[in-house]
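Posting for a labmate who doesn't have an account.
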Amino acid sequence: MGKGERRRTGTFLGIPYDWRKPTKARYRERLWNPDEPRVLTPRAWGWGYDVNFYRIVHPRRRSAPGA
């Protein structure tokens, strides 16, 4: 990273940010991703978190202990 250049992605005070130009693929990856186990994912564009709606619609079933 050269002098005067800013990072386009990263975290600030533990909160993720992504200032790259948004794309449909990145929105799809953050908002509907069956491969992502988290409900909250870093924003597709901006600062904070997005909701992975796939995890809300299709929650993983947890087996009972000893089952």
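Reply:
Got it, the structure tokens are right above this. Residues 24-31 form the longest helix (8 residues).
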